[in-house]
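Tutorial handout. Part one gives the primary structure; part two gives the three-dimensional structure as tokens.
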Amino acid sequence: TKKIPDVPIILYGKDFWEPLDEYFRKIFLRPGLETISEEDLNLYVITDNDDEVLELIKNAEVRGDISSRHHLG
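Part two.
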């Protein structure tokens, strides 16, 4: 809906998430019955790779002013 800036959505654990991704592609992208766009399925990354997760997080755009976050103490 483009109501918030893009953030990395990381689905960790290919064995768990890939069957769900296949289901989304099979059901939601049926020709003539598309309920989402293929672009929507690119909003997340499915991985088992710790280094990839770290890179996705490090390269993500910073959202908001971090100085305004709650501080402990």
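Part three, for discussion. The two ends are 37 Å apart (CA to CA). The beta strands are 9-12, 44-47.
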